Amino acid sequence: MKDIVITGRQIIRELLIFAGCILAALLVNVYSIVRFSTQWKELITTLNITLALALIFFALIAVLRGIVFCCSRVLQKKAG
To answer: d(Cα 37, Cα 24) in Å, to the nearest integer?
Structure first.
């Protein structure tokens, strides 16, 4: 069986993408706090929901990246 090697560069890229997802989820939370005039302590009290939203964002981005990867592979095979 062939070994799978994950490089440090790939790990860092995925961590940066996940950090962006966490930031986006926090920005959604800040927007909702401002929009509905609630207390700022909700940034901490809803942190578990924010992290779950970040995971959902990450999964959606992974699906989109997979679709783009598959489409690019199909187009490369047609061209070559």
So the answer is: 20
| Reported pTM | 0.85
d(CA 1, CA 6): 16
Is the separation of the CB atoms in 24 and 37 below 8 Å? no
Task: Tell me the domain boundaries of the chain.
Answer: 8-79
Q: How far apart are CA 19 and CA 58, in angstroms?
A: 9
Amino acid at 49: I
Q: Residues of 29-46 as b/e, b for ≥16 C-beta within 10 angstroms?
A: beeebeeeeeeeebeeeb
What are 65-76's pLDDT values in tens digits?
A: 999 999 998 888
